[in-house]
Structure formats: C-alpha cells, structure tokens
Amino acid sequence: MTLSEFLVFALGIGAREHGVRNIPTIIYMVGHFTRADIPAFRDFKDMKNSMMSIRNTFATGGTSLKIDVSFPDDSAPVTLAVGIRDTMLLTPATNKSLLELGNLLNVPKKVLKTDEHDHAWLIQNMDYCRTNHWEMFREYAITDATIAMLYGERVINLYDEVQGTKKFPITLSSIGVDLLTRKLNACNPPLFNQLFGLENHKSKQYNKNLGYYVRSSKPVQLIEVDRYIKEATECYHGGRNEQFWFGPCFEDTWTDFDLQNAYPTAMSLIGIPLWTLMYTTNDIDEFTPTSLGYADVEFEFPESVRYPVLPVRTDNGLIFPRSGRSRCCAPEIFAAKRLGAKLTIHFGLVIPTNRGIKPFADFTKDLIGYRETAGSKTLNGLFWKEIINSTYGKTAQGLFIKRVYDLKQADTEILGPSKITNPYLAAFITSAVRAVLGELMNGLPSEKMIFSCTTDGFLTNATEADFALLRNGPIYKVFARAREELTGNDSVLEIKHAVRKPLGWRTRGQATILAGSIAPIGDKENFVLAKGGIYLPKYLETIEQQNEQIVKLFLNRTPDCMVHVVGSVGMREIMTYDADFVQKSITKRLSMEFDWKRM
After folding, report:
1. Whole-structure pTM over 0.70, yes or no?
2. Strand order in the sheet with 78-86
3. Spatial distance between the Cα atoms of 319 and 131, rounded to a whole number of angstroms
4. Dmax of the chain from CA atoms?
C-alpha cells in the first residue's frame, strides 16, 4: 500500500462511517517509533527528501510530504500536506515505552495473554497472531495507534497553552528552545542575543525573481565571543562517570544519591555575560564557583585526595587523574584549590556577568510552575520535567563531531549547532555539576567510599547524616541557594535507590546482589541496575528478572562466554536496501571485565 492509498482509505472511512464532511488537507501521522512503521509503505523511498532521521527514527521537519489525491470523476486532485511525528521523541525519558505512556494516559495496552511468557511469544510472532487471532491482533494494533494519537494531541494542546499557538513540535528539547527564545525576546530589552553572545548582521541580496534587493538580518557571534571559542570548546566535557569497585562489594547500606535537577540548577547560576569585557588572567583567585572562567591548568593533587576533580580528555573517555593538565572551568578549579592541589594556569579567561539578571533561572521557574500545576507524577508533569532537563543539551549541540544519517544524501553528516549552542555556557554548566559532585565525594568520612559515580549522582555507603556535615561546602551552598530560588526548598540531594550489596564491572555497569531493605517505590527503589550495554531478552520485563539475569551472567562468565543480542535493521540498511524494519540476531563476546579506567 502506498501512503496515498493509506490516507484515502483512512479518510474514506472517516467520511463513510463517522460523518466527516470537511476532509482536512493538513494531516499529522503519529506513531511510536516510526522507523518500524514508515518503511512499510510501498513508496517509502519517494518520501526521503521530505523526511529527517532524528535519533534513528523518522520525522518531517519544515517540509511536509505532499500527497496528491485523485478522484474517479476527473475533478481536480487535492494536495495533502502530511507531517510525520514520532512520540518516542516527545516522551519523558523514564516513560519511553508505549506501555508506560498508555498507563499515564489511562489507555492501557492490550494484553495478548495473561501468562507473561505466552504474551512475549505472541509479541515476537505477530504474523502468527494476525493469522490465528485476528480480532485480538486488530484491537492490539488500534490501541497502540490510539495511545500515540492521544499523546500527540496532548503535546499540541500543552504547547498551545504556553505559547498561544497550535504547533506539533518534533522533540521535547525543541519545545524548550522555543519557550526559552520567546521568553528572552519578550524582555525589554530583548535578552536572547545578550545571553548567547550574538549580534544581528544586516545584509541585502539581489533577488532575480523580484527584480530588486532584499534586506535580511541574521544573528552572528560577537567578535569577542569568536576570539576564544576554541578555548571554551576545549573546556566542555560531559558528566563524571566512573566505577570505583569491581565485582561483588561488601554488604552495607548502599544509597544512590542524586543531585536534584542538576543541569537546570547549574544553568540557573548564569547571569548575563558581559562579552565585550572578557579578559585573560592567570590569577587562581579569579576562578570562583559562579564565575564564567576557562583555563588551561597544570595540576597535582595531594595523596590524601581520594577523588581528584579536574577532568582530562583521553582517547578512552574522561578521566580524573591525580596529576596532569586539564582544560576546565572555574567551578572545578575552585574545588581543586580547596582540596590543596598545586595549580599553574597557563592560559585563563574570565567573562564578567550581570548576576542581577538570571534568564535561565526565570525560564526554569516557569517550567517548574507548569509541572507543579500539572502534578509532578502526572503525564503533563513528567512532560515538563523532561523539557526542563533536556534544554541544557541544546547549548552543547554540535560542539564536537557527531555524525547523523542524512536521508537526502544517503550518508552520514555532521550534526550542526542548535539555535542556542554556546560552548562558554555549556562548559560552565557541566563543570558546575562535576564540581559540586567532587566536593561532596571528597568530603565523606575516610571510612566511607564511593562505589560508582554516574553523571549527577553516586552510589555510596555514606549516610544522610554524613552528608549533613557537608552542607557548609561553598559549592554546595551555591547549589542550595539556587535550588531555593527555583523551588523554595534548598534540598540538593535526593535518594533514588538503596541496596545491601551491589555488583560492579564497568562505567554504567552495576547490578544488585542483595536488594535494599527500605520500602520500595514501584519496583525500582531497592534495586540498582545499569546493564552497561548488555541486551536482555524482551520477556524479562521486570527489574528483578533483568537483575537476576545480569548477576548470573557475571558470576558464571568464562573467557569465551558469548551472548546473543537481538537488534534491528538500522537506518542506513532501510534506506539502502528498501528494507522493512525487522529484527536481526547477532552473537558477541560478553564484556564484563575490569576496564582499567582507574589505573
């Protein structure tokens, strides 16, 4: 079936069976993971010039699919403008599955069989289900489509409530950028260019079709911003991710503490940069927890420092050695100085700021207000939480080479910057999060330890009482004040999980040997599980089942142990071979050995 035939079929049912008289000419097709749906159309390859590949799925951007619909009575054809949206790109990170989305919408997915193994088998064999259980298959399929459609409507309405216009955004982060842009440009004077170091460049160009010159204006970087852009980019690093213990750990109370809304809180510290007043300096005292400072610094930490805090980029990722040379920002330099590190700045840059205006803080407070109005555990509340957390990523988009598949060129291309990409701001935000994390880690009593560290939190046998003693740390105080300004509560840390005996093998590779004894919230509170890239069979749905399998793999592994990975046809294969989305199985060696990152 072609896309045109499908639309005529659907619209025809609307007219015949549901009394629709005004056939729409602007249509959105909504799916949950469109990479599985769109390639099934016979004319799929004809659509590629109007579609984009975003996070390995399909959507349309500024250009809609144009579909001409003809009629048997020889009347003029009607052109339909068709947009494609994938709800996978618009759902909260903790609720990506259609099952969870349906529960939040009060439209539960159809259960094919009450026995979970029978249900899983039918999911894997939908052709059998369709042939032998047609009514059940039909209801299952229509329910899935309904969940995606209802969520699409929810997104349109939420956007309309805050922006006053009907729009179906492509991703959650794009919603955040739209809201931030509108808020900054509504200020008097507008703050967008001031915050991101831009100025409007006016030009005129002769338009042959019009026969005269057309004036235009586009934002470009200030000369001062451009001058040190390479140095600022080198100071941008991701989160701190380390596994400090290999194998089964000793039994204790191991608690997973997270910084609450770490990146939005760090963003809220930023005032309006005075770009034209930036200056170079080698004075360590100029680098404070809140200053926009960037440096090339040589360092050496005392032997007493268990967790050095200055990042060094290597071919094998980010490491935090005892000595070396780091391109980093002011918050971490301040933390290193307090830990007694010997520091020599070879190049330093500071940008003064007007901290009387904190545009990111005002923006974040607005979104927190939307979330509180909706209810933090509701679908709308989770929606706004995800937008709060995802907007930061757009400030770092395109800073380093990342290749994405371009449908028109049938090849990979470099992902470009976003409207708010700025290495100075992105570098400071991530530095502030790593700095407060480092201050807390190094403030623990000597008899306590960190088991693992993941971006904005860590698993430790320290107690809440131990952390109470760390609230006088200067970087912690900065975060606490920011949290109070944003939420009215100065709480910085929250507990995500608690277990009795963890198992670790690599960065983002942890499991639970003995579950925690605290009362669980859902089924996640007393288990820690990060699979470290190991894929498990889909019938292992609960965290207990998955954790049990991971622990077995670790304890029973041998040097020649292999695992079967069920993957799926990738974007390039779909485009090159006009392939449908199907699963494929590969065998790979089990990798659960110590990665020597700490050596």
Report:
1. yes
2. 26-31, 78-86, 65-69
3. 55
4. 87
Return the structure tokens found at 140: 């299952």
Please say whether the beta carbons of 525 and 518 come within 8 A: yes
Would you give the DSSP letter of residue 75?
P
**Residue whose C-alpha is closest to residue 254's, from 100, 432, 396, 449:** 449
Q: What is the pLDDT of residues 519-552, one digit of tens each?
A: 544 444 688 999 988 888 766 767 888 899 999 9
* Residues 6 or more apart in contact with residue 123 via CB below 8 angstroms: 112, 538
Strands 254-259 and 457-460, sheet pairing: antiparallel
Report the candidate in 330, 320, 325 with the shortest Cα–Cα distance to residue 342.
325
pLDDT one-digit tens code per residue, 60-101: 987 889 988 887 777 788 899 999 999 999 988 777 788 888
The span from the CA of 369 to the CA of 363, in Å, is: 10
Which tokens sit at 225? 């911003």
Torsion of Cα atoms, 596 then 259 then 466 then 244, to 10°: -10
Query: Could you tell me the two tokens for 258?
Result: 């997270």
Token digits for 134? 């047609």
> For residue 126, is it left (φ>0), alpha (ψ between -120 and 50) or beta?
alpha
Token duo for residue 162 = 């805050």
Which residue, chain included where needed, has tokens 């992105």?
A: 426
